[in-house]
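Inverse folding, one chain.
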């Protein structure tokens, strides 16, 4: 079936304790004019690309796609997603937390953070993300600072990646606190899922067996890819096109994959910090491939943020 539930401008829609199976396009889709919605304790299994999807462009979708900030998303589990598990507008830093305690595994993208020009800082917290073929939690065209906390990310090609676009703050930052970032655990083997899957200009569905990420086929895992700060936006929502649906539709395929540099450095100074976090099970002999706990984005070698690390524990890591 196509979308299980679509909300366009509705008020007070409440979706709780349901099971959705084998949806196409997005499973639950809330547009930007939906208000006071809640998506609580649902299970979504098998969110697929529709057979009539374009084959010449990347068309993002998600098991739970929320283009509204006026929503509670809590206690959900999604799995088997041909694209993203969750696409969300994150909470403002220091505000009321309405999105937490959610889980996703076995997806192309775990969590996609929609960029917003109206927020100078957003926070993403309490997600469990594992077995992700491309990026566990990804921010693209972020306009403000990003706070991550209470994350568990494991067995993913890239755990966490943030790309900013002309940040509004003079000194933008990305921080990760009180989290667990793991590479290859007992959930993975050497016989399956060795190379990533990534949507690119030559593979818009992200189905090729040749890894199309910026890391390439010789790297199995990167826990944290250092954030980058660009002066060009990738998505139509940040390029302010008159027709833009979905809001994270890539403007140009040459800018893909999501973690690839696009344009030039977009800030003079930025910081990145990791605190009170466990980084575990990254080795240089990961089924014959390499894995890294923290790594500079190879597509933006000409800039890296000022970095701070405290309270880090390393387990089973070379």
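Residues assigned per position:
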């Amino acid at each position: 079936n196509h979308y299980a539930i679509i909300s366009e401008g509705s008020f007070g829609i409440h979706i709780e304790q349901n099971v959705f199976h084998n949806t196409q396009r997005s499973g639950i889709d809330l547009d930007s004019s939906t208000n006071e919605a809640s998506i609580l304790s649902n299970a979504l299994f098998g969110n697929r690309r529709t057979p009539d999807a374009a084959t010449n462009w990347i068309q993002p979708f998600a098991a739970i796609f929320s283009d509204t900030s006026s929503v509670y998303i809590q206690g959900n589990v999604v799995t088997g997603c041909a694209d993203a598990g969750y696409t969300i507008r994150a909470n403002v830093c220091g505000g009321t937390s309405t999105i937490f305690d959610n889980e996703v595994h076995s997806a192309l993208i775990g969590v996609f953070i929609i960029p917003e020009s109206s927020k100078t800082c957003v926070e993403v917290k309490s997600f469990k993300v594992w077995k992700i073929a491309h990026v566990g939690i990804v921010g693209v065209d972020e306009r403000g600072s990003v706070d991550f906390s209470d994350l568990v990310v494991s067995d993913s090609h890239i755990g966490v990646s943030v790309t900013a676009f002309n940040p509004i703050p003079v000194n933008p930052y990305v921080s990760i606190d009180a989290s667990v970032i793991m590479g290859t655990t007992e959930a993975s083997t050497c016989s399956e899922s060795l190379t990533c899957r990534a949507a690119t200009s030559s593979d818009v569905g992200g189905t090729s067996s040749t890894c199309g990420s910026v890391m390439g086929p010789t790297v199995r895992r990167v826990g944290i890819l250092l954030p980058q700060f660009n002066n060009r936006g990738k998505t139509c929502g940040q390029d302010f096109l008159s027709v833009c649906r979905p809001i994270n539709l890539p403007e140009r395929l040459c800018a893909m994959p999501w973690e690839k540099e696009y344009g030039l450095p977009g800030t003079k100074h930025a910081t990145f910090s990791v605190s009170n976090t466990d980084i575990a099970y990254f080795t240089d002999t990961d089924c014959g491939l390499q894995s890294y706990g923290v790594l500079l984005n190879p597509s933006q070698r000409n800039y890296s943020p000022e970095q701070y690390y405290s309270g880090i524990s390393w387990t089973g890591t070379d």
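The mean pLDDT is 95. The two ends are 46 Å apart (CA to CA).
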